[in-house]
Amino acid sequence: MASPELLVEQRALTIGKWANLFMAFAGIFASWLSRSDAMMVDGLYSAVNFASAIVAARIGSRVGLPATRRRPWGNDFDEVLYVTFRSLVLIGVLVFAGFVSGSKIWTFFTGGDIPQLVFGPIVIYSVVIVSICLGLAFNYHRAYRKTGKRSAVLKTETRAALIDGALSVGTGAALLSLPFLQDTPLGPYVPIGDAVIVVVLVLVIVWQPLSAFRGTLADLAGVSAPGTTYAKVSRTARDLAKEHGYKLHRAAVLQAGRMHFAAVYLDPLKPIEAEEIDQFKEKVAARLEDLVGPTRVEVIVTAQNGLSFAAGEPTN
């Protein structure tokens, strides 16, 4: 049976999935009616969010499941892969939008024909889409808080909804302001105003998926968890080792989405039963659950420190 946190996440993603499908069709239809590339970009962005919500729902249902013979470390890295490839797709959409708009600007300056915008559909579309995006962002963030602020999927979708809303606000406002520039020195360039807006939006927005992509690459590369997380894991393992009369050599910590992986290297200093190590591992995992979130703990019994770097400290 699914946990309450998982059910909350799944409900939020289901709502987001169908909302994004509606926005994708609305954006493409509004683009066709208004002849606006910016509307098309907005629709494509929502289409990516729709496809991502389907994948996210499947991944969310597997995160935290016990390890299997096929997946000996569980399915937790699927969440990191999801965020990574989603970021790449969004980067691709934005690059494509920038290329299309750049081509329109080039056509204008080389004497080509640029279709005139139709502003009526833009007004209706902007109001409807902004309202939906704000509602989605609120829904995702509420679910994120209810699940203990541990879901990388919900965190990513909250940001995506806010960006989508900001994209719609900026696009709509900028496009609707173009007619007022007709009698200004910028009047001759009004036909490419739509393309210029897209280029500016791409330059403003692309940092978000790039940042997410860089962060997940660190997780996939096996970079140590942040220093604050490492310190909590190391301190917890050291305190419990002292309680049991063990010698702690070091701890190693990785992070994969909402899941952490901790390896604890220790020397019992005395003969012990395997059951005692199992109990120690369960205690470490239970304490870390409250401190850093879900953690898969492995205990390595060894008499050697085995360090090839200074004190085992992470560099971040």
Write structural notes for this entry.
- 65% of the residues lie in helices and 8% in strands.
- It has nine helices and three strands, in the order ααααααααββαβ.
- It has a three-stranded mixed beta sheet with strand order 1-2-3.
Q: Count of DSSP E strands? A: 3
Please state the structural category: mainly alpha
Mean pLDDT: 82
| Ends apart, CA distance between termini | 38 Å
Please state the oligomeric state of the protein chains shown.
Answer: single chain
The major sheet is characterized as:
3 strands, mixed
Q: Please give the count of helices.
A: 9
Shape: elongated
* Biggest sheet, spatial arrangement of strands: 1-2-3
- List the secondary-structure elements in sequence, H or E: HHHHHHHHEEHE
**Helix share, percent:** 55-70%
Q: What is the strand content? A: 5-15%
Stretches where pLDDT falls below 50 for ≥5 residues?
309-316
Q: Quick summary of this structure?
A:
The protein is mainly α and 316 residues long. The protein contains 9 helices and 3 strands; from the N terminus they run H-H-H-H-H-H-H-H-E-E-H-E. The radius of gyration is 25 Å and the shape is elongated.
What is the fold's blueprint, element by element?
Blueprint: H1 4-34, H2 37-62, H3 77-109, H4 120-146, H5 152-177, H6 193-205, H7 207-220, H8 227-244, E1 247-256, E2 259-267, H9 274-291, E3 295-301
Parallel strand pairs: 2-3
Antiparallel strand pairs: 1-2
Helix pairs in contact: 1-2, 1-4, 2-3, 2-5, 3-6, 3-7, 4-5, 5-6, 8-9
